[in-house]
Structure formats: C-alpha cells, structure tokens
C-alpha cells in the first residue's frame, strides 16, 4: 500500500514538473527576425535576406503589406524582389510564443532621380541640416537611428515647401516621401502632403494622428497625382498640428524628419 502511495506521489510530481516546464516554454517569446536588403531603392531588383536566432523555428512573411499569420508563405532562401514591396515577417515555433513582427519597405525607382534640382523653404534646423536639399534626391536611405545620419533633414515647423525642377517633361503618377517616426524623440510622420503644379493642386494625402506609440521606423508616404508630364512640382509637407495627448510633449509642434523625395 505504502509503495503504491509513494509511486502515485512520484507520478504526480513529474506531471507537475512537466506542466510547469510546458507553461514556462509557452511563455517564452521568440526574438524578432532580422531583415536585410541589398538596396532599399533599386531600379532592377533587390535581394532580401531574413534570419532568425532559434534553430527549427520558421519565418513566415508577406511582400504586399498584408498581415502575417500561420498560413503565410514560409521563408527558405534569399528572395529577389523586382517591384516596390512592403515586407512583413514573424518567427514561429510550436513550443514558443511567436515573435513580434518586423517590417521593411523597398521602393523601385528609375536608374537616376527624375529631380534635376530641389529648393527648400524654410531650410532645415541647423542641428539637423544633413546634406541639405541634395540629400532628398540622391536615392540614398537614412537609417532609423537619426543621430549623426546625414541623410536626414530635421524641421520643427508647421510646413515645408520643396520646389522640384524635373528632368525635361517627366511622366509622373506618384510622389513618394520618406519620413522618420521616432516618437520618443518627438519625431512624428507628416499629417498631410500636397502636390501642386503651376499653382493647381494635383494630389493630396492626409494621415491620421497617432493614437498610440509607434515603433521607430522610416516610412514611405505615397501621394498619387493627376498623371501627366510635368517640368516643375511644388510639394508641401505639413507636420502634425501638434503632438498627441498621450505623449509627454502633447500640444507642442513635433519634429519632422525627411530624407528622400521620389518621383514615380
């Protein structure tokens, strides 16, 4: 009888240990995947590589900006991407919590910028003057870490006017702006972008005020315009009217950081 009781206690102990270990395993979250591309701006193709830390885990991804889930494509090898894409990826493993999602955007361009010259009004902050106006037309991407990165131009003003002289009469259907979000440093994406030709508005996009804190990221904002051949364009970039209520800088003018204007 005593042996049977002891045996039962041992079995119960092992079961509890097993349950405890399983619970601990299920609470462990996988590290996010790391994405690397050969070029953010490309005229032919760019090569995407995604890596993970844990063996036997699986990376799933999308290229069209759609939400990643268990039914998404499995990443097995580097991918050649020939069109603009919004890449999203998550790491999965049956024994652990899925990773946080990572996102990266790549943009297909012509071999050389269609912008011949660019004039800014006003000029960027002296502290964040970067490469000046030429840095907005060199097809080089700034990093998400803005400190010391000369690609970024920083403003703390209501709006910025960029006057573009294009190569000959360039066919234009979209204007794309690259902007930074780094809310812990009071840097927010624009609230609105307008595009004018000869004083007439040909495209506009409005962006919602951030209701929750967003992760640091460089965002491409696309403004469709009336398709046509243009020699000059005026692009007006409006900062958010003020920092949202949930932020410690609420009610003040946010910083606006931009690093590229692309004609498509």
TrEMBL record:
User: What domain of life does the UniProt record list for this protein's source?
Assistant: Bacteria
- The secretion signal range is 1-23
Q: What protein is this chain from?
A: Fn3 domain-containing protein
Q: What keywords tag this UniProt record?
A: Signal
Note one Pfam family from the annotation: Fn3_assoc
Does the keyword section mention Signal? Answer: yes
